[in-house]
């Protein structure tokens, strides 16, 4: 398996994986050709050195997973860097094979390479299996997250 930064040619496969679950299908607009907003977002991500959109390829060069890492510089923790992992998805036919664990191990190492002092994530409370998976990896629910959605 090979981890690499995503290219513009990967965006349709990435969005397809993001949309291919019970929550993603309610909030994404996956169609081919992709709506322009996805390509604009991809360009913005690529232009920001603190964003890394990653894909995982299998031995046949097929994309089987994706994740996004954001590196957030702040003043607390002596000017520390916080890594945030988002949009972790595995292609539906490859789930349950240990690929998610491999992806998180890679992300943890990458965050450490970038000198982050912690890696954080949020997960929807409607995903109890995901919460258990993250706990098994060593993540702890130390804070209560809150969001405000805008229309």
Tell me about this structure:
The structure is a single chain. This protein is α+β, with helices and mostly antiparallel strands. It has one domain: Gcn5-related N-acetyltransferase (GNAT) (Aminopeptidase), CATH 3.40.630.30. It contains 6 helices and 5 strands, in the order E-H-H-H-E-E-H-E-H-E-H. It has helices at 11-19, 24-27, 36-47, 76-79, 99-113, 128-137; strands spanning 2-5, 51-57, 63-73, 81-90, 118-120. It has a 5-stranded mixed beta sheet, sandwiched between helices. Strand 4, helix 5 and strand 5 (118-120) form a beta-alpha-beta unit. It starts with a strand and ends in a 14-residue tail after the last helix.
* CATH-level-2 architecture: 3-Layer(aba) Sandwich
CATH top level label = Alpha Beta
Q: Which quaternary structure do these chains form?
A: single chain
Structurally, the number of domains stands at 1
Characteristics:
single chain, 151 residues, alpha+beta, Aminopeptidase, 5 strands, 36% helix
Short description:
The protein is α+β, with helices and mostly antiparallel strands.
Topology at a glance:
Elements: E1 2-5, H1 11-19, H2 24-27, H3 36-47, E2 51-57, E3 63-73, H4 76-79, E4 81-90, H5 99-113, E5 118-120, H6 128-137
Parallel strand pairs: 4-5
Antiparallel strand pairs: 1-2, 2-3, 3-4
């Amino acid at each position: 398996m090979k981890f690499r930064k995503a290219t513009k040619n990967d965006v349709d496969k990435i969005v397809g994986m993001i949309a291919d679950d019970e929550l993603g299908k309610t909030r994404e607009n996956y169609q081919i050709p992709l709506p322009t907003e996805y390509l604009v977002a991809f360009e913005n991500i690529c232009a920001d050195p603190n964003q890394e959109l990653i894909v995982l390829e299998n031995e046949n060069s097929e994309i089987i997973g994706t994740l996004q890492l954001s590196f957030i510089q702040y003043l607390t923790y002596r000017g520390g860097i916080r890594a945030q992992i988002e949009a972790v998805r595995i292609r539906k036919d490859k789930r349950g094979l240990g690929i998610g664990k491999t992806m998180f191990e890679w992300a943890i190492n990458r965050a450490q390479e970038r000198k982050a002092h912690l890696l954080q994530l949020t997960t929807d409370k409607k995903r109890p299996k995901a919460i258990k998976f993250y706990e098994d990896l060593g993540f702890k629910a130390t804070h209560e997250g809150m969001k405000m959605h805008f229309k």
